[in-house]
Amino acid sequence: MEKKQVSKRLYVGGLGHTVSKAELQERFGKFGRVLDAEIITRKDDQGNPMKTFAYISVSISDADLRKCMSILNKSKWKGGTLQIELAKESFLHRLAMEREEVKLQKEKPHGNDKTCLLESLKKAGVVDFHMKAVPGTEVPDHKKWIVGKFGRVLPILHLRNQLEVWLQKESCWFNSLTQTNIVKYDPSKYCHNLRKLEPDLTHVAPVSELTWHLEGRDDSVNKKRQGEFSATKKTPKKLKQLGSEALNGAALNSSGCQSCSTNRSSPQLDQRSKTKPSEKSALPPSRSHNSKISGRGLLSDKSNVFGVTAQNNTSVSDSDIDSEEEIRALVKKEREIQKAESVETESDHLEIVGDNFELKYNSHWSLSNPDAIKRAIKGRYREKETMECDNGYDSADTDEIIADSKTPDLSSRKTAILEDSKQRKMENKEILTNKNCGLVNDSSLKTCNSKEYIERKGKMKKSKIAALQSTAVNSTTTTRSDSESSYSEPEKGESEISSDYESMMRNCYHLDLTLDDLKALATDSTGTPVEGSDSTQSSSQCSVEENPKGNVVNKTKFSTFCPAVKKKCICPEDVLASILAGEENADEESSKGQNNLGLKYQPFRGMGSLCEKELTKDSTGLKKRSVESLGLESHISYCGEEVSKRQSKNYPSYSLEVSSKKTQNTHCDQYKELSDAASLADERDQPVSRPRLQGKNKDVSSLQDNQNSEHGDAAPSTDKREDESSDMDSNAAVSQKRVKRQLKSPKLLSKKFKGDLCLHATASKEPSTKEKQLQDNQRRLAALEERQKERELQKKLIQGALSNLVITLITSDESAPKTSVRLFESSEDEQDDTDDERFKIKPQFEGKAGEKLLKLQSRFGTDERFRMDARFLESDSEEEETNILKVGEEEELAAEKKKNLQILGSLLNINLEHSKPTKTATSAKKFNMCCTTILQQSHFSKAKRKKKREESEKVPEVSKEVYYDIAVDLKELFGSSKSKSEKKEEIPWDKDDADDSTPRDNLGPNVGSDVAQESSGFRFSFFGDMEESGIKEGNSRTFIILQFLVSSLCQALWSNIVSRNSESRGFLETKVSNCAKSL
Amino acid sequence: MRPLTEAETRAVFEKLGRYIGENIQLLVDRPDGTYCFRLHCDRVYYLSEKLLKVAASVPRDNLVSPGTCFGKFTKTQKFRLSVTALDFLAPYAKYKVWVKPGSEQSFLYGNHVLKSGLGRITENTAQYQGVVVYSMADVPLGFGVAAKSTQECRKVDPMAIVVFHQADVGEYVRNEDTLT
């Protein structure tokens, strides 16, 4: 119970004044041992004791204490009542106690280890961690201590990976350590990295002062800030220097934490000022501090990006960092500052853009800038061109480029179309004959090329390529007439790619040039059906594939046809010579055969223009071409029947070609078929045929049309048959046939001249006997209808001129202009005869407006390019009407606008030119008109020449008019006895032949007719260069021909008239005399 | 509805010219048709010829708004642009100011643009030049007058006003009843 005695301090109050220490000790001694007793007496002013109390320190047990308290408390002792309480311990005691405790606590952990270590180290001879020894020597008895540089005794450390901090200082070796978890670090081995820093430490300046010297900015903001945060305000400046350093990867290792801290903030700022996301990744050092700092406002994200770099860490963890608190404070300050600054720093963010800054949205009409688009396109162009330089043929793009570069001038669509067609051709080739892989490659390339091209250029649509192709095809049909001129160029360019392709293309090219007429015809006649087919194409792809093929085939046929035509058109003498000379090779022969064919069919086309072109070329080249064309033909023949049929329907030209084929075959078999073809040619050739069929009136002309159409129809029918046969036959067969033909051809040529004339009737009948007569008839009927329509139109056209003519004829007064006009019209007649479809009745020519239009067009002649559209008319009429109606309002508005612009000009001090694009439509029309007028002028110069020629040509034209006047009677009189008249005609013809052939180099009437046709054909196909030569030749030849014709005509007329029609004799006489005069 | 008198036209063009300069020409002489200015109830409307004809048949009292209202004449015959003209100012504006997303709303509530809210500005903007205010997404928000030139904008205090507010698309909501 009482065992445990605790020293307690008791307060004893209420003591008597007289109580002494001893008494207290005695009294309390009963309960425990009294250690100490202290009596304190309070006295008043007089010194009388007021109060006496005592503190007693007793070592006493709790029970005793309680006992003591209960006994002594409130007991009276020596005149006072005792009051005992526990008191606080005396402060001295407490102090002592505390000190002791502290001592104990301190000595326990500290004193032992360190002192021991020190002691032990001392024993080993280490004083103050310094020992004189070679670096690297171990301190004796202490494994973990080693002598480093400067004699310092350093511990060997076992480091974790993260302790890069340390290592950063001794930079280089550190990297290798990162691999393992714990690394032993022997400082002696790296002692060369150590420096003695003691002197520096003495002079350490506060961070703020360190940053001080970097200040340089005088910005108002900075100054403001300077007062508050002198240390930090400079940071942005500094950062530019330091930041750059940091960026470069320079290490600021030992400069001390202060500099580092400033440094840290500085790069951030720097970054901020320049912040580009792209730069972020490359960014410099920021250490753990940084991450804290980066938490700030707007900057956070960017500063975060900086990441923690080892460098900064070194500074932080450096032993120098006694000033960590300082740094903390600094960081805080900086944070505050930067928060405040964030706005300001963002002002660095302020973007200033130029006037040309483009907004993202482009919704407004004025903002949708076509120029930009164009630019983009151009850029693409350029790109592609550049690519072209590099190009191999493997990529479609490059091909596209090629196409682009080669057809820069031409309208894109046309080129696209061309490409397309080419591609198709190539495809055909590919499919039909896999002769040349090169070709195939080319074709494939072309396909890609054209597709892309179309894609891009066509209409910038992203629709499917197939659809685009179909559209392109459509456009081909629609715009072919326009694109013909341009057609040739790209093809030429393309031709360079491969030799085979080249030759083919060249053929095509010439064809295009020469066959302008043909194509025009083709477009007219086939425009609608082809378009229809095209529309169907668009719906289904396969159909698309086929139809274009058909088109392509057509074109290819053209191409094939063209060489033949060329051959024909080349001076027949040359051809003959070549034929006679070279019969060695089968190929050559075949080519000659073609040439022969050409000769025969020359009259057909009347491709006078071809001749001039051909003259310039070598015969050898021509031969080659012809050979190639043979190959082409074979390919074509391979093509499916459908295609060929379609062609035959669509293209009269095709029929011609087919007829040529047919003639080839049939010539081998029959001599008469040739004559048939010749007859066809003759009939087509109106100047030739006219003199023979003198009885023609306008009424009668329908009969002639019938004949013509019959012949024309016959050709396709044979054609079909031919196609079938050709399908079955291989190329070889065709070539063989040709060869055979060729063998006969020289003879045929000679005979043909007469045979043409003789065998009209038979020829016309032969085709009719063939299988497909019915179809032919149908076609013929259709053609007839069209013919009649055309005739009506022609009547309209010519009537005026004719009436004048008739009058003049009767009065026998001829004025040059009138005749010329009349000739002009009659030449149109010729065209119509040759070209069935050229003059459909066009709706725009009807009615009053039509007359106007007709007038307009008559000014331009029949040139294809100046065909007047309804637009021209409409624009006139519309303008008139609308002008009348709206003049008032529009004028008002215009005046207002003018006024507004004036005011604006005065306000802005600029000269606002009255750009009045408001009526863009009308202006466009005007522009068109300008173009047309310009072209027109150029055309007129040509027209003059033409007129000259025509004047020389007058006579046959006159003769035709004679028909018109007389033939009614004649026809009625003769009835349908055409054969008779023809036979009658023949006689004089032959006679004339005999007479005239001598001056004409054995060429006979054929050549004459050719030339005559030539002159007419000229109208359409000629362009500047070819013109002159053509004219010269044409003039000389036509003159001869005219002489011949006139003479024959006179004879025929006389014979007829004398025998049958005495009434009209006088009339005819006058006419003939006129002819003579004109001649 | 009547055409503007010369004085009125001058006033209108002067005001427009502050924002779009000589581009007024493009408004007056438009390639896509004839457009004109008309005065109706002290307001200036910009409308096409076609619309003009249609609007001509409406009685004056019943005609609320022919075409696009560009602004109105005050009683003192000064011309004041309204926000409805923004559609025609924005595409032609020569001087533009982009406001940061944070201060977009502030501007749309009719406050001036502070430096702190200025995201981008056309260079060479003069003081008191009319500017069109865009959001950073290039959506036209309104227009105002540059309180500071571009150079001043760089240095100026963040809280300083950079663009004085004149009109903003928020007016379509705030002044719904008075806008025509």
Would you state the CATH class of the largest domain in chain B?
Alpha Beta
What is the CATH fold-level name of the largest domain in chain B? Nuclear Transport Factor 2, Chain: A
Query: Which structural category do the helix and sheet elements of chain B fall into?
Result: alpha+beta
Q: How much strand content do the residues of chain B show?
A: 25-35%
Q: Approximately what portion of the residues of chain A adopt beta-strand conformation? A: 5-15%
Kindly report the greatest chain-chain contact and the residue count on each side. Answer: A-B, 42 and 51 residues
Secondary-structure-based class of chain A equals mainly alpha
From the alpha-carbon coordinates, what is the Rg of chain A to the nearest angstrom?
A: 58 Å
Identify low-pLDDT runs of chain A.
Answer: 172-178, 230-322, 341-347, 365-422, 424-515, 525-576, 578-768, 807-834, 912-938, 953-971, 975-1034
Number of domains of chain B: 2
The quaternary organization reads as: heterodimer
N-end to C-end Cα span of chain B: 14 Å
Please tally the helical runs of chain A, counting DSSP H or I stretches of 4 or more residues: 44
Task: Write down how many β-strands of chain B occur, each being a DSSP E stretch of 2 or more residues.
Answer: 11
Low-confidence stretches of chain B: none
GO molecular function, one term (chain A): RNA binding
InterPro entries (chain A): NOP8_RRM, Nucleotide-bd_a/b_plait_sf, RBD_domain_sf, RRM_dom
Keywords (chain A): Nucleus, Phosphoprotein, RNA-binding
Function (chain A): Plays an essential role in the survival of diffuse-type gastric cancer cells. Acts as a nucleolar anchoring protein for DDX47. May be involved in regulation of gene expression at the post-transcriptional level or in ribosome biogenesis in cancer cells.
